[in-house]
Design brief:
Layout lengths: L5 H15 L13 H15 L11 H15 L6 E4 L7 E6 L10 E6 L18 E3 L2 E3 L7 H16 L8 E6 L9 H8 L1 H4 L3 E4 L4 E5 L2 E11 L1 E10 L3 E2 L8 H14 L8 H11 L4 H9 L7 H7 L3 H7 L2 E9 L5 E2 L2 E10 L5 H12 L4 E6 L5 E2 L15 H14 L5 E6 L5 H6 L4 E3 L4 E3 L11 E3 H19 L2
Parallel strand pairs: 3-6, 3-7, 7-18, 8-19, 9-17
Antiparallel strand pairs: 1-2, 2-6, 4-5, 5-20, 8-9, 10-14, 10-15, 11-13, 12-14, 15-16
């Protein structure tokens, strides 16, 4: 569904980001002292070295309790530091920085998940749960997703408290569990069970957005305005099996791989919406040559599909143009000397706004084209269901001036003149739970990354050291801007 008038509002905001607010880039920002940086690095290291995966070895509570200890030792009142959750290993931390006096303004919430995706030591060149600084990068699981922002915001809250900052509205920091998977999603649980702790005028979620670098040059700053719908599907082939010495082409593994090859060869239709159109309109002004020409060509009516195909060779662009589905896990067989009786694959889909998981499940059935295979929905809690939800993507909130004016000004001071533009998040985030509760959510991390070096969820995850310091300076200025006199 689309919100009437949304496109014009965001186009106006984006043009202001490109043109009218560029003058703010001349303003100097306060930078963190050596002492402040040392603390921020210490917190970052501590969080990376705590395993918060959804595995028997992982424990989110170890990390949230460690941060709780820091806030209490810094002098935050115990009644404003809440460690709570439905599972002992998945406790969430909610910290409130109180306004200096009575206020009618609703709080601002900063939403950060603490869990990370599993990482195997055998897959990495370094230990994923050791914080290593090397060649201008910090290495470790969570350095990009998203213990960088967890640490930067914890450090910023502590710094403001130490400096005696007097906000005119409450500031809330929520460090939550199970965004990356698991049965105890903290953001969802807090909204449903403890709305009073996280109710806010708006939410900034650093699990999305940021500054895109191309050959070291900042080309665009992305602010998440909407996101795709995350869905997993279980594709299953079953067969009578048999002795491996007498192979047959109708065994379960063959049937499943045939289906997955059909899916790999399929491309979902090209689509655009108000957010992605604005994003590529702004990006075209920063690009050159064929890339810039192709971006302009997809904006006309009807769009140039040849141009779209050329741009789709870049995975990040392709993900902005369509629903994507890819097999991420395989399970098959019961013995080395027997034909598989069962073969299963997890197919992970990121669904373009406007389509539901059930609609895509039906499309997968058609793409596979084999009635002997089943396609079932896998819920966030891991349950396997015959049908999928009909829910669609979150409705983009209208841009709020008190969010975007300081966000743009501070971003352009750190990365001179970079255009700030709304984007569609190609993954998924916890913003959906607050959006469904009627609280506007915006995704922005102030992290600058090269498009070729996005390693979240992958091997040898790393973050440029300079990028971390700039995000630290961004959050300090942004928090004081949205809550200071």
């Amino acid at each position: 569904m689309r919100r009437k008038g949304f496109s014009a509002a965001f186009v106006a905001f984006a043009l202001a980001g490109c043109l009218g607010l560029a003058a703010f880039a001349q303003n100097a920002l306060p930078t963190a002292s050596a002492e402040d940086r040392a603390l921020a690095r210490e917190i970052f290291k501590q969080l990376v070295e705590i395993n918060t995966t959804d595995t028997p070895q992982g424990n989110v509570t170890t990390a949230t309790a460690a941060m709780q200890k820091r806030f209490l030792e810094a002098g935050f009142p115990p009644e404003d530091v809440h460690l709570l959750g439905p599972d002992p290993r998945k406790q969430n931390l909610v910290v409130r920085f109180r306004a200096a006096g009575p206020t009618t303004e609703k709080p601002v919430l900063f939403l950060c998940h603490m869990d990370v995706v599993q990482a195997l030591r055998s897959d990495w060149h370094t230990d994923p749960f050791q914080f290593i600084e090397q060649d201008g990068y910090y290495y470790g699981r969570g350095t990009q997703d998203m213990k960088n922002s967890d640490a930067a915001l914890v450090a910023t809250f502590l710094r403001l408290h130490k400096e005696g900052f007097k906000p005119h509205r409450d500031l809330i920091l929520a460090l939550t569990a199970d965004e990356e998977g698991g049965k105890f999603n903290g953001a969802d649980w807090l909204v449903r069970e403890h709305r009073e702790l996280v109710d806010a005028a708006w939410v900034l979620n650093p699990d999305a957005g940021g500054v895109e670098l191309e050959h070291g040059r900042a080309v665009v700053a992305d602010v998440e305005a909407t996101e795709k719908v995350y869905s997993d599907f279980q594709v299953t082939a079953t067969n009578r099996g048999g002795h491996s010495s007498r192979p047959r082409p109708d065994n379960a593994i063959y049937e499943l791989t045939t289906a997955l090859n059909k899916l790999a060869a399929y491309t979902f239709p090209f689509e655009m919406n108000e957010v992605t159109r604005t994003y590529f309109k702004n990006l075209a002004g920063q690009e050159t040559g064929q890339t810039a020409a192709d971006m302009r060509a997809i904006l006309v009516t009807p769009p140039d599909l040849a141009a779209a195909a050329r741009l789709s060779a870049e995975p990040s662009y392709n993900a902005n143009f369509r629903t994507t589905c890819v097999a991420t896990r395989l399970m098959a067989g019961h013995a080395n000397n027997a034909l598989a009786q069962t073969a299963q694959a997890n197919v992970n889909c990121r669904i373009f706004p406007g389509h539901s998981p059930e609609e895509i499940r039906q499309q997968l059935i058609g793409i596979i084209g084999d009635s002997k295979l089943s396609v079932q929905y896998v819920s966030d809690a891991g349950g396997v269901e015959e049908t999928a939800p009909e829910r669609k993507a979150m409705v983009p909130p209208a841009p709020i001036a008190e969010v975007f004016e300081p966000l743009t000004r501070i971003t352009q001071a750190l990365w001179r003149g970079v255009p700030v533009t709304p984007v569609m998040e190609n993954g998924a985030s916890d913003s959906i739970y607050f959006a469904q509760a009627g609280i506007p959510c915006y995704g922005y991390s102030a992290i600058a990354l090269s498009r070729e070096d996005e390693r979240a969820h992958g091997q040898d995850e790393r973050l440029p050291v300079d990028s971390y310091w700039k995000s630290l300076d961004f959050f300090y200025s942004f928090l004081t801007a949205v809550s200071g006199k």
